[in-house]
Fold each of these.
Amino acid sequence: MLIAKIIENDQLIQATQASNSEIYYCPGCKARVQLKKGNINIPHFAHINGSNCDVSAEGETVNHLQGKLALFTLLKQKYDEVRLEPWLSQIKQRPDLMVRKGKDWFVIEFQCATISLEKVQARTKGYRQLNYKVIWILGENYQNKRLQARTIAKFAIIYQQQLQVAFWQPTKGIIWQAWWQIDGKSRVLKRQMMANQPQQLLKLQQTVMQSKPEIWPIQNELYKIKRLVIGIPWECHPQYSLPGGLKVAQWQVIIRVLLTLEKQPRTSFQLMKLLTEFPWQRFGCLSVKKVQKIWLNYLLDDLISGGVIKRTGDKIVLVRTLKWFNTYQEKLQAKLKIDTTNFLS
């Protein structure tokens, strides 16, 4: 850690300003800490062996110390006030940084080491008890490999109306990466048109032929009304990437929404309830409800732009009859015909 208290006068001091002539202790657990300051190491304080201090349980690598100091320097240029390793006695937590813009305080956690979802949730909950907004910034270890969806969900927040994760890069500063998905699995970094509907159809055909259990419920529901999974309307294969977090293919949710609207107009609240029937990632800094809401808003906007639905008062209304198909080939040929017509027009 970079901040400790001097035993003699109980004042906080940064390791860069400390000297070996003083005795120091941890602001959190009150245990003795040792100043480590030399020609090689970054000046910092370390608990003496045997300490069980909760706020220092992970230890700190050189990358973590360097990144924290660099963030401190950077953020001082952009915020009204920046605090390094403040001890929050009310919740017994010590974030890496806190910054203030006007009246709003933000907690910054610079994360380099592996950390469980439960710890992220617990720390975030603690900070929010004090009405602080929380941002987790990921260090180098998280950038040297392809992140799995559950890891992204652990640190994602809603920023600029997108699900995003913050990364620290020494040469570029804080980098935000958005989390969008196509097919409910493939990750893309921006909201974009995806010209891969035939590929989506092929994946669906493979899923049907393999009789995967994940599609049995919707398959049985469609069978009762004499429709086929492979014949779902093309509108169920999204043309644009949608926010991440969903653990199944997006068509499963879209078809459920459209089937519901076929019966009668619904409110956004009623459609939100449909989304809770599907599996979602577990989030560390967000409620699943917030993720579902932003996901649904993007979907509805896309369907409105495509002339499929419209808003009438507080209701969502289906405005045209959707085309269903009997076979894979019939559906593919219809798509190719539409694309050719659009190209020639």
Amino acid sequence: MSSLRPPCSPAANAVPAPGRSRPRRPVAAVLADRLDDVPVVEAAARLAAARGAPLLLIAVLPPLPPRAVAAPPDGVTVRAVLGRALPHLARVGIGYEPAVYHRPAGRGGRLCAARSLLDVAIAHGCSRMVVSRSGPAGLDANTVMEAAAIRGGPFVHAAPPVPWAPLTATRSSV
């Protein structure tokens, strides 16, 4: 048994019955509580629907203070990060499973945050991830792709950033 896979998911290690296909590996969407979360969720939902796979929403949270307890995946903080994505998932009609990733505290090198994020995805059995091209420092698509290439997986898709639109002020005639 792999030490990275949680013991509460025996279906991930199960051998399929004769004539049946293997269980689908989830597609992960990395959400960092930014406007770029919308294209990430849309791309991940398209991938998951096309593959017939479940969707894993990884909420990126700030580093934990020393001796603090990590937030549960169904906690208020995680739901606040996932809040921007949930209406899009309801429209598509696809289910999801939440996961939590706390950014590492301090300086750990350029690829440290990306490697830790990959650990979370691999622990949930993900074979594909969708990350924003303009994500937070150390968690943008290029850095995560580089860390995944060094590690040997999972496959990382880059979601485009939200297009820029100038703010327009309404003019009132007085």
